[in-house]
Design brief:
Blueprint (H helix, E strand, L loop, with lengths): L1 H23 L6 H24 L4 H15 L2 H13 L3 H37 L1
Length: about 130
């Protein structure tokens, strides 16, 4: 059952990533890849703890969302290829900027996602009292 959910959600995540590429793609900077990776960092850090704590969603469905959808939506391989292509084009400053924004931005988005999730979880705990 895990494979089915991961596969279904993976297909949806891949389609969403493709749509983002159509929307933001083109140009000299890989903005679509950067966007999906930053959004994915936030979503994984926000949605997974929140759903695990506050919903009655099964572990199978949670794995489908996390591993399937978010895993297929984000892309480390495209990030790596984009970086190499920037370097091969002589865009060293742009490549280094892309690496730094991806890494630091991803960590910041995880921090924001966890904070937001924790804030909502605490707020929900106060309303139950």
């Amino acid at each position: 059952m895990y494979f089915l959910y991961v596969g279904i959600f993976g297909a949806l995540g891949g389609m969403c990533r493709y749509a983002m590429n159509l929307w933001l793609g083109g140009g000299d900077f890989p903005s679509a890849t950067l966007a999906v990776n930053l959004i994915g960092c936030f979503l994984l850090a926000f949605i997974m703890p929140f759903l695990a704590e506050k919903s009655r969603i099964s572990l199978v469905l949670l794995n489908g969302i996390g591993t399937g959808f978010i895993g297929a939506f984000t892309t480390f391989s495209a990030f790596s290829v984009d970086t190499i292509e920037l370097l091969q084009q002589g865009e060293v400053v742009l490549a280094i900027s892309y690496i730094l924004v991806s890494l630091i931005g991803g960590l910041v988005m995880v921090k924001f996602g966890r904070r937001f999730s924790n804030k909502l979880l605490r707020r929900g705990a106060h309303h139950v009292d």
